[in-house]
Specification:
This is Fucosyltransferase. By secondary structure, the protein is of the alpha/beta class. It has helices spanning 7-14, 47-63, 68-76, 100-117, 129-132, 151-154, 165-170, 201-207, 222-225, 229-238, 245-253, 258-272, 294-306, 340-351, 376-390, 402-411, 451-456; strands spanning 91-95, 120-123, 182-187, 212-217, 277-283, 329-336, 359-363, 394-398, 416-418, 431-433, 460-462, 470-472. Helix content is 35%, strand content 12%. It is globular and about 80 Å long. The structure holds guanosine-5'-diphosphate.
Length: 473
């Protein structure tokens, strides 16, 4: 044995405690089984989650693209008055909306919904998803075939569309005797009360009969799935540790392509692997115009020094004279659209020694300046940086940034969250430690059918960084 592990322990670590299925071709997707850069997770998936994933994989293989049930199901599209034979396959189609972080959060949410409702999840492949992620399901495909009968209509699904569930409720066009063959669900930050009826038990009873659901969302809506009574029973069994939902499902679903993994490993080996400790700092500036601001720079320093993530600069009195052998190296990975924050940090620790004698190495992989979602290389860099952040030991993120949420969840890290500056001032305190590693559902429905449940559910709290958002703890 090496590393004190025997063969079966090593196999289990490679498969993340049973989370991943074995048997994929390793070379075509190196990230899938490569745990060499990551510390083993502190969180093990439950046996029930593992068996649920294996049965989901069987379902997907039976109902996936190219199968007879898939063909039958696509033929039904456009017909109402369905003959329901009970054993037919049902589907949920995910569409990419907004930035990469938003997309990864909604994809995990839709996948959990598929697990809970025994649907097959298929993803729209017309953007660059295949440049970013490998296939997660064995011996089948998660890609919605390009000849899917509704392909031409997918982009046109919006709030005004006659097949939008919220709009149909509004127009009293839903009656429980006619089951439509497909519906569009709109789950955005600005969705209407009717759209949010998706989170109500009785609406789920109806939606469960609809063979095809198409979801567009930019949110992590998992916390509100927990407050649907019939789902909660299953969820408690699947995730006895409630804050592990995203951590497990994201590690199950997302395996960067070899091109992206190359970027991750090259950066890691060049700048992070030799360090004694790694700190990640994700700087997202939402103000308009965005860019470099002194108050944000001050906030980053104030937070990292106060929380002892970075040392102070030495004064002549505090300067430590150290022998080179005992010098500790701390690598600081900065990700931001703006290169100036890391430039400033780098200069600071170049021009003056640190008070602890630690060597601080600052690295920022890219500084793209503006968001360019759907440009292949831009999105690949964004994904590589999310992964690099997840490989750090301590993480600092920015308020309400889904980019940071994904990194913390993948890494199993509870970050320090930089509060959103107001009136161009450094907030005081500058940051807050997250209660859990879960992403925040930034616009959870607070007033509808779940209003009472929110108050009495101990494991759902208002987010640290967004007062009206909800997260699992
Ligand atoms: P959010 O807007 O912060 O919630 O995160 P999203 O990921 O949904 O959207 C922001 C997009 O801007 C990302 O997907 C990237 O395309 C780009 N972006 C923002 N911050 C960074 C960063 O630190 N590094 C890189 N490479 N891209 C970033």
């Amino acid at each position: 044995t090496t590393n004190g592990l025997n063969n079966s322990e090593r196999q289990s670590e490679k498969l993340l405690g049973g989370l991943l299925a074995s048997g994929f071709d390793e070379k075509s997707c190196l990230s899938r089984y490569d745990q060499s850069m990551r510390k083993p997770s502190l969180y093990k998936p439950s046996g029930y989650l593992v068996s649920k994933l294996r049965s989901y994989e069987m379902l997907h293989k039976r109902c996936g693209p190219g199968t007879k049930p898939y063909k039958r199901a696509t033929k039904q599209l456009g017909h109402n008055e369905l003959r329901s034979s009970g054993d037919e396959c049902r589907y949920v189609v995910w569409m990419p909306m907004f930035g990469l972080g938003n997309r990864m959060l909604s994809l995990v949410s839709v996948f959990l919904y598929a697990l809970l409702t025994d649907r097959v999840m298929l993803v729209d492949q017309r953007n660059d998803i295949t440049d970013l992620f490998c296939e997660p399901f064995p011996e089948t495909s998660w890609l919605l075939p390009l000849d899917f009968p509704l392909t031409d209509q997918l982009d046109g699904f919006n709030r005004e569309h006659s097949r939008c569930y919220g709009t149909m409720l509004k127009n009293h066009a839903i009656n429980s005797t006619t089951i439509p063959s497909h519906l569009y669900l709109d789950i955005f930050h600005d969705s209407r009360d009717q759209d949010k009826r998706f989170f109500c038990e009785e609406d789920q009873a109806f939606l469960g009969k609809v063979p095809w659901l198409v979801v567009k969302s930019n949110l992590y809506f998992v916390p509100s799935l927990w407050m649907i009574p019939s789902f909660q029973t299953k969820l408690i069994k699947l995730f006895p540790q409630k804050e592990t939902v995203f951590h497990h499902l994201a590690r199950y679903l997302f395996h960067p392509t070899n091109q992206v993994w190359g970027m991750v490993t090259r950066s890691y080996n060049a700048y992070l692997s030799r360090a004694d400790a790694r700190v990640g700092i994700q700087v997202r500036v939402f103000s308009k115009p965005a860019g470099y601001f002194q108050h944000v720079m001050d906030q980053i320093l104030s937070c990292t020094q106060r929380e002892k993530l970075l040392p102070e600069l030495a004064t002549p009195e505090t300067q430590v004279t150290n022998t080179s052998r005992s010098l500790k190296l701390k690598a600081v990975l900065v990700t931001s659209l703006h290169p100036e924050y890391s430039d400033h940090l780098k200069n600071m620790f170049l021009e003056q020694p640190s008070s602890t004698g630690e060597i601080i190495e600052v690295y920022q992989p890219s500084g793209e300046k503006i968001q360019q979602t759907d440009k292949k290389l831009h999105d690949q860099k964004a994904l590589a940086e999310i992964y690099l952040l997840s490989l750090t030991d301590e993480l600092v993120t920015s308020t309400r940034s889904t980019f940071g949420y994904v990194a913390q969840g993948l890494g199993g890290l509870k970050p320090w969250i930089l509060y959103e500056p107001w009136e161009k001032k450094t907030p005081n305190p500058p940051c807050v430690k997250a209660m859990s590693m879960e992403p925040c559902f930034l616009r959870a429905p607070l007033h509808g059918c779940q209003a009472k449940t929110i108050k009495i559910t101990p494991f759902v709290r208002f987010c640290e960084d967004w007062k009206t958002g909800l997260k699992l703890v």
